[in-house]
Amino acid sequence: MPDALSKTVPIWACVWNRLLFSDDRAACKLSTPSEVIGESEHAQIELRIDGFVRDLQALNLDLEPLKKSLKKPLQPIWATQSSELRDEDISPACYPLVLCTASGRDAGQDVIGYNYVQGAADDAEAWALGLSPVLFWKCKSLLLQSPEEGLAEMIPTIVAEGARAEGVSRLVLIKPTSRLFIGTNNCCANASDEFGAIISCESQITENEEPDGMSEAMPKRLRLHCQAGKLGSRALRHSLHEVLPLVDEVVSKSEESKILVTCPTGKDHSIGVALAITCLYATEDGNLLPRSVTQTTLNKDFIKKRLSWTVASIPEANPSRATLQSVNAFLLG
User: Fold this and answer.
1) Using an 8 Å Cβ cutoff, are 197 and 219 in contact?
2) Nearest 5°: phi and psi at 275?
3) Alpha-carbon gap, residue 96 to 303, rounded angstroms
4) Where in the chain is the domain with CATH 3.90.190.10?
5) Could you tell me which residue, 41 or 230, shows the higher pLDDT?
6) Dist CA 15 CA 9 (whole Å)
7) Which of 10, 125, 226, 280 lies 20 to 30 Å from 35, alpha-carbon distance?
């Protein structure tokens, strides 16, 4: 069973339960699958939970909206090839998190262990071809009825259509700022002149002449060449140097002009660019000011706090490790 299902998700469920439901002793206990996590390892993990809670509290997140929507604790439940999910396993006092893996126990094996099925849970980037859980459930019937050999051609089409369906209105404000937005590249064409700058991360860039009579009031556009996946994430470290002069100009000229950062999904490279901007230009209350005013002392804890702004504003944000490493290297290098 992947660590993501046996450890990571249970740990975070326990952390949130202790933070939001501290009076519920049962919910505050760490729950792990005994088939793969021994008593000693379970005890060692549990000793670290309070530290994780303190780390989360240090981010100073606004938890009130979460408290209103998450009315019950989280309960991890594991589903494998050899398990049976019964109604009595699910407590009505909790929200169940069903952690399903295609990995199965080794045939004839008497000791604890599973055959790991590549791609069974936590490495979707390597095999999903961009297919998200939302798109999977939306197109479930089509996918399950199609021959397996044709899926590699079908899925990119589904992903592309899904991106187009998000439309140009998919703009999200990164709070507590009032003028830094993230969206998909589809948003750029219809962005209004309230944006002083548009920074788009694109896998392919074509040189197009500007139309005659383009107004100077139109947003200034910076296209960053970022290939899909890890190569683009790594290139971001060097591309971020191109972002600074444009943002310097926008925040110095006006306190009203907005900045739009986009990428194909609005969830990866754009998150990295926005993170760099909030680290260098944003005050604690979210005002975007010139770097000469903010003069921020950067470290990993500070970057983590700024990242929490984006994650809180866009829960579906999913910046890759390579993207975050590039931003850290750019800011701290």
Assistant:
1) yes
2) -60, -45
3) 32
4) 172-332
5) 41
6) 10
7) 125
79, 100 contact by CB (below 8 A): yes
Name all contacts of 103-110 with Cβ < 8 Å and 24+ positions apart: 103/1, 103/2, 104/80, 105/80, 105/81
What is the rounded distance in angstroms from the CA atom of residue 161 to the CA atom of residue 191?
21
- The CATH code belonging to domain 172-332 is 3.90.190.10
Out of 22-36, 97-111, 135-149, pick the least confident: 97-111
C-beta of residue 43 within 8 angstroms of C-beta of residue 32 = no
- pTM greater than the 0.85 cutoff: no
Reply yes or no on whether the pLDDT at 225 is more than 70: yes
Cβ contact 171:260 at 8 Å: yes
Length of the chain in residues, anyone? 333
Query: In this predicted structure, what is the pLDDT of residue 105?
Result: 56
Spatial CA neighbour of 163 closest among 273, 302, 281, 265: 265
Q: Dump pLDDT digits (tens) for 259-276.
A: 999 988 888 999 999 999
The residue among 228, 222, 227 whose CA lies nearest residue 188 is 222
| Number of other residues whose CB lies within 10 A of the CB of residue 275 | 28
CA dist., res. 125 & res. 81, Å (int)? 23
SS3 96: strand
Give the whole-angstrom CA distance, residue 232 versus residue 137.
Answer: 28
